[in-house]
């Protein structure tokens, strides 16, 4: 599904952030990307939806070379991905329903299909009874669940999560991670950047560790 081959990312001012990174991710994989702050975890994740591009190397997603993807093809690639952020990135003037519906509205789905998919996604994260609420009235854990529902509503093949439990307490963090594990059971690949080694070690899955720009897959 996803293959990094010799991927290097260098910034003119900050130097080399990633150096010769290589790994593969397959359907149904759960993988954790770990490393100290500034190790390059977020940089690596940004390369997959082509928010940024590598300096050298190749990134393939189902046979498509993301490293050389034309600008007009980027939206199509992003529709295959579900993106989840530490700070939720919800629209506070929209209801829970409308936040989750946004990717489908942009993609041009009809009203009936949007309603069906949104409610199915909210039900999956146990937030169906909150669809008319606004984000400001929700707890941090509830807001993250809405963010996850928005990420899965268009049925992505790969979920990318950047520190998704960074603002949550330990109990909620375990609940959120358990949701990601459920998604892998239906063939969705999940790649999670996290600095919480205690939580990561309790979850199983693959462990990809970044140190000084280089990636090492650690045995469990």
UniProtKB/TrEMBL annotation:
ABC transporter domain location: 2-220
State how it assembles. Answer: Homodimer. Forms a membrane-associated complex with FtsX.
Its biological purpose is as follows:
Part of the ABC transporter FtsEX involved in cellular division. Important for assembly or stability of the septal ring.
The name on file for this protein is: Cell division ATP-binding protein FtsE
Lineage, uppermost ranks: Bacteria, Pseudomonadati, Pseudomonadota, Gammaproteobacteria, Methylococcales
Question: Which GO cellular component terms are attached?
Answer: plasma membrane
By sequence similarity, the record places it as follows: Belongs to the ABC transporter superfamily.
The record's SMART domains line, in alphabetical order, gives: AAA
Its record classes its membrane topology as: Peripheral membrane protein
What compartments host this protein?
Answer: Cell inner membrane; Cell membrane
Listed GO biological process terms: cell division
Q: Which organism is it from?
A: Candidatus Methylospira mobilis
The source's domain of life comes to Bacteria
């Amino acid at each position: 599904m996803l293959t990094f081959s010799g991927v290097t990312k260098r910034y003119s001012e900050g130097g080399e952030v990633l150096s010769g990174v290589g790994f593969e991710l397959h359907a149904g994989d759960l993988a954790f990307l770990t490393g100290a702050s500034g190790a390059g975890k977020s940089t690596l994740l940004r390369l997959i939806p082509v928010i940024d591009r590598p300096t050298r190397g190749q990134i393939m997603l189902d046979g498509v070379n993301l490293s050389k993807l034309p600008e007009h093809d980027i939206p199509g690639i992003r529709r295959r991905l579900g993106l989840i952020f530490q700070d939720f990135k919800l629209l506070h003037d929209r209801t829970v329903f409308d936040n989750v519906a946004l990717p489908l509205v942009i993609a041009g789905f009809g009203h009936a299909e949007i309603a069906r998919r949104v409610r199915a996604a909210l039900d999956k994260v146990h937030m169906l009874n909150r669809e008319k609420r606004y984000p400001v009235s929700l707890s941090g854990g509830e807001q993250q669940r809405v963010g996850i529902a928005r990420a899965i509503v268009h049925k992505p093949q790969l979920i990318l999560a950047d520190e998704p439990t960074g603002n949550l307490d330990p109990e909620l963090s375990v609940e959120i991670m358990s949701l990601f594990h459920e998604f892998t059971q239906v063939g969705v690949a999940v790649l999670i950047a996290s600095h919480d080694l205690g939580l990561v070690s309790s979850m199983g899955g693959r462990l990809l560790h970044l140190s000084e720009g280089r990636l090492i897959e650690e045995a469990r």
